[in-house]
Amino acid sequence: MFGHPVDMRRLVPWAKRHGLFIIEDAAEAHGAEVGGRRVGGFGDMGCFSFYANKIVTTGEGGMVVTNNAEFAERLRSFRNLCFRKDRRFLHKEIGHNYRLTDLQAAVGVAQIERVDAHIQKKRWVAACYRERLKSLRQVNLPVERDWAKNVYWMYGLVLHDDVPFDAAEFARRLHKQGVDTRPFFLGMHEQPVFRSNGLFERETYPVSEKLARRGLYIPSGLTVTESEIDRVCEAITHVLS
Asked: Which residue ranges form the domains of the chain, and what is each CATH number?
């Protein structure tokens, strides 16, 4: 989440004991590591997003990786309208048009060649924010577990409970100071589209609900400069003082 991986070394054995497959959602964690091993290759499949603001981007789209030949063939079929190899335009299954264009793929290859530099910049941005904001008692900063490498896709802040306003108000006040932010994700159980279909009735998840209401992330793109980081931190300090 936001660049920090789950401890797959604990999850994979548990899944195997229960006969479960693992599909890793590594959409926000290109290059993140668990025990020195990069994420996306622990499970049966790994999914990466190439949306415009990701560490590796093709403008839009993504990638699924697997070392299972049968899964790979099924994935290729589904992304290409389930065309058959033996007879074109005869379909036995419903597929989708998920083909990545050659132009997008070329951009992605060039991005992957630079991924280490991108990660280095992301970690530098995180270090700058951590050094400038570590004395603020009103916010929790991102962490990096000793077994993990966090690529800090986004740098998120979570307001302490004693701050008398929520993340939405925090964002409005920062905007007045010239700093744009983005909110944390809202839990699936609170999405109206699912509620209207009878899902998640009377279900509550206090941790995700708290994060959605108390968290936001601040500018941390690959082009952000140290002077801009200073400006963001000055605005945060001003709003929380």
From this structure: 8-113 (3.40.640.10), 116-240 (3.90.1150.10)
